[in-house]
Amino acid sequence: MKVEDIFDKPLTKRQRQDLADLKTRPERKIDYSDIPPLSGKQLASAFRPIDKHFLLVRLDRDVMQWLNKSGESYSAHINRTLRSEMRAGVSTESRRG
């Protein structure tokens, strides 16, 4: 199953009704008693993720094969490679100007 299959799957009538009910429920009516408190270690490791942008990119087959050889997800590999180039470009541009 692909991620698109999950996002494109329509909600059932029951799911739509549950969401509508939750949207109107006041926060004071939500029961949090079954949620364990976070530990200090969990709180210390909390972070706000970098805002990601969904993008469809067409790549040549050999480029995809190379990306997949790294062992990490190809999108993470692309992002890391582009970020490295971006930073290198910034330092190159600052030396030019």
Task: Describe the structure in brief.
The protein has 5 helices and no strands. By secondary structure, the protein is mainly alpha-helical.
The count of helical stretches stands at 5
**What is the helix/strand order?**
HHHHH
Pick out the low-confidence regions.
none
Strand content: under 5%
**N- to C-terminal distance:** 49 Å
Average of per-residue pLDDT values: 88
Domains, number: 1
Taking the sheet with the most strands, its summary is: none
Number of strands: 0
Cα-atom Rg, whole angstroms?
A: 22 Å
- Label the structural class: mainly alpha
Oligomer: single chain
Please provide a written account of the structure.
It is a single chain. The protein has helices at 3-8, 13-24, 40-44, 61-69, 74-96. With 97 residues, the protein is mostly helical. The chain has one domain (3-30, 53-96). It is extended. It starts with a helix and ends with a helix. 0% of the residues are buried.
